[in-house]
Amino acid sequence: MLESAMRVSVWRTFTLGLVLGTLLSTNPGVARAQENIEEGEVRVGGARAQIRIVPNTVGPRAGQLKRRLVDVRVARVVAVTGNNPTNQRQPVNNFNGQEFTSLSDTITASQGGLVAGGGQGLDNCVTTVSMKLSGTAPANFRFASFDIDPNTGSCVLVADGSTGSALIVQTPPNGANPGQGEAFPDASVGLFTQVSPAGTASMFNNTPITVTVRATNGFTVAITITLIPKGGNEFDLQVTSVVQV
Amino acid sequence: MKTRDMAPGVRLIVLTCVVGVAAALLADVSEAREMRRFNAIRTPQQVAQFGGVQVDPVDRILPVDPRVARDAITKFIGAWNTPLINSILAENFVDKSRFLDSTATNVPRNARLRLLSIQGVQTIAQGRRSSEDGERQLISTVVATVRTQVEFNDATSGFVRLEGTNDFYLTVTELLE
After folding, report:
1. Mean pLDDT across the stretch B83-91?
2. CA distances (Å), A134 to each of A131, A213, A232, in order?
3. By CB neighbour count within 10 A (0-12 exposed, 13-18 middle, 19+ buried), where does A31 fall?
4. Among A220, A238, A231, A224, residue whose Cα is nearest residue A144
5. pTM of the predicted model as reported, rounded to 2 decimal places
6. Sign of torsion, CA A65 A68 A71 A76?
7. Would you say A79 and B166 are in contact if contact means Cβ atoms under 8 Å apart?
8. Predicted pLDDT at A157
């Protein structure tokens, strides 16, 4: 009798354990990542948290079209630092955006030295110029203009408003725009467009502003400039940095 | 206290828990076996990113196999300063002809490009289009950060090496079958 009761007890224990185990293994609260999981979202612990499953990188997944490689081409190379072997004018004699005409200058630049003359890169425009009158604008207006070649990264700063494909700095600003000056790419050239700041890049005396412009080929440059008053209508434009971004 | 000293009810509960936990462990032995890579942060789709080819942007980017980018960059490195480079550069590569000319005239003949590292291969844009033959193509823009070194021997400067880091943008064309 006692033996029979014990058998029943053990059997009931085993059955209850099996049921409990099944419940634990199927409970979403203890879901585990499984192999071959499909792309999508998995809910863990009810609605409290979600795991986003990204698609597998290698090979097609179930139900996905097979991909066959046809062609790979280098479309663009953006220099980050050092030598750019795809520089269109000087594949060897360039370093950190500057181009050089001699190998010795290139080696000097690559070793951290300063090269007199500054090469032909964006750094050419890092200077201070006295803003000048334009032939067509009113007499109280002053200008300085940046011309940047988006193919080579060479920059020229001209102290008037005759050009300015990348950026024209003008004082006073147009119309009711705030500040003592403003900066904008030359819309008539159409080579560069302003990326930031959104809207008018207003300039205030002695306050640096960074204007980012992008060329039609994607070449993007951040130009940091400061308007320095000299009295009356006269201003200096200080260029702190011109860097590709 | 030993098991046999427990009250029958308590013993039943303990045994139930033990069997339950064992069954749970045995029932599901699958587990995460790999670290999945980060997916690219999507950027606004632009036609220009596909080299001017008109494509329909996809809703969800399917990353291109990084080995494709590595192979293409390795091929580019090997072809640099040789006429073969022409076939690796895209037709819309900015000032392609000028680059080929300056390579022929301004680069020492013994100059070679060495690959130092390839990092951060990411598919940043993707679109579909139909080719003239009616085949469905997947066009992807893949970017990789590449460290290279130009090496050559100069008569006056001796062995010259110029290291550089550049972002390579690749246009990858795949056929959907």
Report:
1. 92
2. 10, 23, 16
3. middle
4. A238
5. 0.50
6. positive
7. yes
8. 80
- Which of B:115-134 have CB within 8 Å of A? none
Q: Can you give the pLDDT at residue A30?
A: 42
Neighboring chain B residues of A85 at a CB cutoff of 8 Å: 80, 113, 148, 150, 164, 166
**A244 interfacial to chain B (CB closer than 8 Å):** no
> Which of B164, B146, B126 has its CA nearest to residue B71?
B146
> Kindly report the CA angle at A87 between A81 and A93, in degrees rounded to 5?
80
Contact at CB, B94 and A12, closer than 8 angstroms: no
Per-residue pLDDT of A233-245, as tens digits, reads: 888 888 888 888 8
Residue A169 token pair: 């700095």
Structure tokens at A152: 């080579």
More confident residue, A135 or A26: A135
DSSP string, B43-71: ----GGGGTT---EE-SS--PPPHHHHHH
Distance separating alpha carbons of residues A98 and A83, to the nearest angstrom: 9
Reading the block at residue B42, the tokens are 């999507």
Give the Cα separation of B98 and A87 in Å (integer): 10
DSSP B4: G
Selection from B53, B62, B90 nearest residue B168 by Cα: B90
Task: Among A33-47, A124-138, B79-93, name the one with the lowest average pLDDT.
Answer: A33-47
Please give the helix or strand (H or E) that residue A72 lies within, else none: strand A67-82
Q: A167-171 and B112-130: which strand pairing?
A: unpaired
User: What are the φ/ψ torsions at residue B53 (nearest 5 degrees)?
Assistant: -80, 130
* Interface A-B: count of C-beta contacts within 8 A: 220
